[in-house]
Amino acid sequence: MPTHISIGFSQHPDPQNAVLQACVQVKNQLNSVAADLVIVFASPQYIVPETPSVITRTLKPKHLVGSSTGGIILSNGVTNRGIAIVGINSDDMHFGASAIKDLDAQDMRKNGFDLARQAAQDLNSTHREVFIAFSEGIEKNTSHFIRGVKEALGGVFPVIGAISSDDFKYKELSQFFQDQILHNSAVGLLLGGTFHLGLGCKHSFKPLGRPRTVTKVDGYVLSTIDNEPAIEIYKHFLGPEAKGLKNVALNSCVAMYPLGFYLEESRQYLLRNIIDILEDGSIVCHEGIPQGAEVHLMISNKESCHNSAIQAAELVKASLAGRPAKLVLVFESLARHKILGRSAFSEIQAIKDVLGNTTPIVGMCSYGEIGPFDTLNNIKNIYLHNESILMVAIS
């Protein structure tokens, strides 16, 4: 049996009806009793206790994974409300799925190792292609999590993923695993078999002003920059806008100005979003920034975001070497999506202009993207990215 991939989507106001509608669309396209793999992306309104049971009853998936999201990416645009379901049946592709719960209570390196090992044990194939993670709770220690995954699967194995999101409330984050809705968990999907993989990862931000030095840091908390409270870097550039920074969230002006520090090995800036500001002016980031690193405020605009999406798509196209993409998964920063606003549709169209107008596209807006810079050629170094767009194509 060749690979069959179908996508269903619904925004019916009743969550159970919406899930059923999306499932029926998938089932009709797959034309089979059961699905080998189901991936779910849903906004919080559509994640109700009955959601996984409706999916499992209708599609009978052997493996089911997914995540909540504040933005569902589809071939015709991006929406902040609804449920998208991907169904895959294939003799060429094989899948292994796993989940680790209560991440906060465990060592993050061990979490990554156990998640990857369990997925490998579930995979009915000796040939592995890529590991995908959907998670909540690894953001402050992603490097240790990635290290654990690589210890289980290999130091140069492709690891990608997305941090679960909601509509900037940070309260309704969920992960799907089989017939369960999880929280504070990581869900893993290991893909194996005989197929081709393409990847492109880009951000659109440029450094603003002169570099400043991180002079005191405690893990993911930046205490001082240039020996001043870290928040002063924002006050210097934003002026009056900085008064509301204590109420920071990705829907504030700070989302437009992440911090960035230069990585010599990748020759690119790695971005870090702010997730909190402490009373002493310290900044809490997604993952840490090394002490002694030179940091900038970073800036972007709609045109730059649009261009970086095209660049990422072109990297995917080049890596596929003329093979058509059967499915493109897109993980894009929710904060970046805020910059695009109503231009989000034109970004998706630009991706289709590169990869083909009939290319099936589905994905999620996330609070962080896990992957290498640029292409699979850089899989030795995997990072948690902010404000980026990451595309994975299966051919």
Secondary structure blueprint with pairings:
Elements lengths: L3 E7 L4 H16 L6 E6 L8 H9 L3 E6 L3 E3 L2 E3 L3 E7 L3 E8 L7 H15 L5 E8 L6 H12 L5 E5 L11 E3 L2 E3 L3 E8 L3 E7 L2 E13 L2 E5 L2 E2 L2 H7 L20 E5 L4 E5 L1 E4 L5 E3 L8 E6 L2 H19 L6 E7 H7 L3 H12 L5 E6 L2 E3 L11 E3 L2 E7 L1
Parallel strand pairs: 2-3, 8-9, 22-23
Antiparallel strand pairs: 1-6, 2-6, 3-10, 4-5, 4-23, 7-12, 8-12, 9-24, 10-11, 13-26, 14-15, 14-21, 15-16, 15-20, 17-18, 17-21, 19-20, 22-26, 24-25
Overview of this protein structure:
Helix 1 packs parallel to helix 2 and helix 6 runs parallel beside helix 8. The protein is α+β, with helices and mostly antiparallel strands. The mean pLDDT is 91. The strands form four sheets. Strands 14, 15, 16, 17, 18, 19, 20 and 21 form an eight-stranded antiparallel sheet that branches. A six-stranded mixed sheet has the order 1-6-2-3-10-11. It has a six-stranded mixed sheet with strand order 5-4-23-22-26-13. The two termini are 15 Å apart. The longest helix is centred in the C-terminal third of the chain and has 19 residues. A hairpin with a 2-residue loop joins strand 15 and strand 16. Helix content is 25%, strand content 36%. It contains eight helices and 26 strands.
How would you classify the helix and strand content by structural class? alpha+beta
**What's the gyration radius in Å?**
20 Å
Low-confidence stretches: none
How much helix is in the residues? 10-25%
Percent strand equals: 35-45%
Number of helices, where a helix is a run of at least 4 consecutive DSSP H or I residues: 8
Termini, distance in Å?
A: 15 Å
| Average pLDDT reading | 91
Strands, total number: 26
What kind of sheet is the major sheet? Answer: 8 strands, antiparallel
Shape: globular
